[in-house]
Every structure is written in C-alpha cells, then in structure tokens.
Design goal:
The structure holds two protein chains of two kinds. Chain A is mainly β. Chain A has no helices and eleven strands. Chain B is globular and about 40 Å long. By secondary structure, chain B is mostly beta strands. The chains are: A mainly beta, B mainly beta.
Chain lengths: ~120, ~110
C-alpha cells in the first residue's frame, strides 16, 4: 500500500520569503512522486515529478523538490514567494506495481497563503 | 496543447436524480480517472479505466458507476444522487505507466439538494 502525508494543511509566508511545503510518502516499491498545484476554481496542474533520474527535480515557476529516500520525503521549495503562488498544493505518489500500478495516491493538500 | 474537458463547471441536482458527468480528452491517452475532492481529504479515486470498456474500482466507488465506450470519453454516473455526494469532481487522463503524469480537467462542482 502507498500513502502520502503533507505536514501542515496551511502555510503562510511573506512575499519574497522561502516557501517550504513538506511531503512524506510510504511505498513498498520505488516510487514515482509528483507535486501538483491547484489555483482557485481550476483543475490540478503538474509542477514537477520525480522518476528516479535525479534526486533534485526542477519544475515550473522556480519550484523544485528533493527526493530523499532515507527520509522518505519529497519536500517542495521555492526560494522567493510571489503573490501568484497562492494556491493549494498536492503531493502524490504513483505505484509501480501490484494493485497500485499507475494510480496516484494524493496527500491532503497544503494551502499556501502569500502576504504582501 | 493537451486538453481535458468536463461537461459542466457547476451542477445542481435534487436527491434521487440520476446524474451524468462527462469527461473528454484529446491526447489519445489510455488511462482515464474520476476523483472527488473534499476539503481536508485531498483527492480520492472513484473509478479508473485503462482501456475502452475496461474499468476498475478506486477507493470510494460506492454510489457511482462509470462508462467508457470510446477512448476519449469517460462518464461518471450517480445512479441516485444523495446529499453526501455534494463535492468537486475531477477527471484526469494519462498514458499507461506509473511514471506518466495525469492531466486534469477544470472540475465539476456538484451540489445535491
């Protein structure tokens, strides 16, 4: 079975500050990991994904995430927050085998608020 | 530009009505998915399909059924809508394989009164 835990349902930062959104996963096989963003009244959009090619993954809008197998983590960071980053962020894990093959399991989501 | 479209953005139905939500993708993807999204619960998989006429139950299939008669179209059916099915419904599609990302539609916000 696979699962995802996002630590913190709400994160608030000032514009220009570092953004750190935490994600821990559980998977019985090497995982594929994804971060999605959802702006108000829209569907989900892929930010970045880890598919074992490199542990540090760069995505759109200057976001990046680092896969740490020893910590079973895939935290999302951005050096400098912008007002337009305000949205809900979802971490997800994709199973590579068994009944989880190809299916995404999502975390509960983290709402990011950016203050001027 | 890849696209997943959903038939309605907002829908209001009465308890007991049969409800159809439709999803169309133009990327020739094998896999299609239906999720419901509720605050604090993230996205939960209702059903998915990996080929025409093929379907598998997800984590919360009770009260729902699906239909996939053509590769590009995946329908979610609420046989008898209930108030606890008030939610945001998201459709997604992907190529076949765990490393491929899913592409999402804009969602349908369903209210059952």
């Amino acid at each position: 079975a696979q699962s995802v835990t996002q630590l913190g349902s709400h994160v608030s930062v000032s514009e220009g500050a570092l953004v750190l959104l935490r994600c821990n996963y559980s998977s019985s096989v090497p995982p594929y990991l994804f971060w999605y963003v959802q702006y108000p009244n829209q569907g989900l959009q892929l930010l970045l994904k880890y598919t074992s090619a490199a542990t540090l993954v760069k995505g759109i809008n200057d976001f990046e995430a680092e896969f740490k197998k020893s910590e079973t983590s895939f935290h999302l960071t951005k050096p400098s927050a912008h007002m337009s980053d305000a949205a809900e962020y979802f971490c997800a894990v994709s199973g590579a085998g068994g009944t989880s093959y190809g299916k995404l399991t999502f975390g509960q989501g983290t709402i990011l608020t950016v203050h001027p | 530009d890849v696209k997943v479209t959903q038939s309605s953005r907002y829908l209001v139905k009465r308890t007991g009505e049969k409800v159809f939500l439709e999803c169309v993708q133009d990327m020739d993807h094998e896999n299609m998915f239906w999720y419901r999204q509720d605050p604090g619960l993230g996205l939960r998989l209702i059903y998915f399909s990996y080929d025409v006429k093929m379907k598998e139950k997800g984590d919360i299939p009770e009260g729902y059924s699906v239909s996939r008669e053509k590769k590009e179209r995946f329908s979610l059916i609420l046989e008898s809508a209930s108030t606890n099915q008030t939610s945001m419904y998201l459709c997604a599609s992907s190529l076949n394989g765990p490393s491929y990302e899913q592409y999402f539609g804009p969602g349908t916000r369903l209210t059952v009164t």
